[in-house]
Structures are given as structure tokens and as C-alpha cells.
Amino acid sequence: MATTKKRTMARKPLAPSMSRYERVWAAVHGEEVDRPPVAFWHHFQPGGSGYRMAEVTAEFFDTEFDLDIIKIMPDLAYPYPRKSVSKIEDWLQIEPLDPMRSRFYMQRMESVAQLRTLVGNDAPIIVTMFSPLTEALGIAESHESFIRQAEESPAIIHEALRTLADNLHTHNRMMLEAGADGLFFALQGCSTAVMPEQLYPSSAARTI
Fold first, then answer.
1. Reading across the β-sheet that carries 182-186, which strands appear in turn?
2. What CATH number does the domain containing 84 carry?
3. Closest C-alpha to 65, from 56, 73, 74
4. Confidence of residue 195 (pLDDT cuts 50, 70, 90)
């Protein structure tokens, strides 16, 4: 007796009915979407140039993968040498940044403005920012030295964290003014794997 197999026709993907911006906005607000928003990322090496940062970001997120969220990575780093603070008095050198002169602010604003020009208004642009604690842990010689100094000289550490927080607050305002839609708040270091729980409320939490 002859038998036949039912043929299964491959389904063609539905054409998207929403723009990337509409899709992300709807998902964030719990509304119906044509499909879940998709995004992933990696780091770049823009050589300190906001213009170059915009170019490589647009190429990866927009041209190559057509992702729903365009995320500017923290590859234009906070202007203080990594792993350079070894003595407690070194923290007193953390000073307010001048919004009109700081290359950190200017190049990051350039990256946002140029990226918006390259990709238009179809997709949300999100800027990555580290918490003040994350920046401090990157500046400190080691996590262990930072924790020791926070326990031994909390007033100095609090002052440095507050200055970092103020500088980052200015950074956030400037990025939004430059055309970013939001911020990705990175909290590396805010963990009991790095800092004792009892130390966190008195040092890091107050600066977020």
C-alpha cells in the first residue's frame, strides 16, 4: 500500500511591521510587539575619537547586524589612569571636570551626535555609563586596596566617589542633550564578590 508524507512548507518570516524605535518602546512599556527586540554588543578601539566611535558603532549595530538597540560602549574611557591610585591621598586628585573643556565629555558627545546622523531616528541610541563605584574600582590599584582604604579613611573615599558621581551626572545630561535616548547603567563591582555587604551602603550606594 502506497503511503505519502505530508510536506511541510517552510514559513517565510513576516515582514516587520514596526520600526526599531517603535519595537523597543513598545517592549519597554509592556505593549504588543511584532517580535522581541534583539541586541548584543562588543568593545571597539576608537583611538580616543568620538567620530571614529560613531563610525564603528554604526557599522556593527546598524549595517552589519541591524540590531534593535544601538549601544555606545564605554570605549572612550573616564579621564583618569587605570590602576593608578595606590595611596589614600591619591584620591584627593579626583577633581570636577569642566564640561566646556573636558575631552571625555566632548568626544562622547561627538560620538552620540555623529551616530544619530549616521543611523537617523529609526533606532534608539543607548550610552553605556559606569557607576561611580565601578569607575573608582578601575582607578584603584586593586579592589583590595580600595576596600582597605574605604574602611580606614571613609571620608576621603566618599569625597572621591561624590566627585565621580557629579562628573558622571554631568556626562549623562550631556549625552541626552546630544541625542541619546537613554543610558545603560553598568554596575561592575556592586557585588559581595568584590565588596563586603556592610561596607556598600556607607560608600557606594549613596553615589548612584
1. 70-72, 125-130, 182-186
2. 3.20.20.210
3. 56
4. confident
